[in-house]
Design a protein that fits this description.
With about 140 residues, this protein is an all-alpha fold. About 85% of the residues lie in helices and about 0% in strands.
Amino acid sequence: MLAEAIDLYLHHDRSELDQAIKERDQARSEGDQRWKEANQIKTEFNQLKRDLEALRSQDDQLRSELEITRSEKDQASAEIIGLNRDLEHYKDTLRLKDDEVGFLRAHLSQLSERITPALPPSQEEVKEKRWWRFWKR
């Protein structure tokens, strides 16, 4: 292109020279425009790379928090299972105790019914009913 411009200049044909200069300027302008667009694309690309890295870092952090939360959930589940087993054991123990207390009350009632006639009368009864003198010693 430069050779054409020199050749045209030497032949003094101004219209063709002007046309060649216009084409050169247009090509230069298009080149500058493409260069600006390329730089803008590079800038956007670099920004997107930074955004991607930030999102990857955030994703890694969230995955780590998720694993910690899952681990805590598993520990809590295991603890709940153990506590439920202990609760059932305590309920069974209380049921057994209640059954034993009921048995002992019934047995005490039976014993009280048997022993009451065999016991000596109270002091008040002795004074009221003088015929119990043989219980005194």
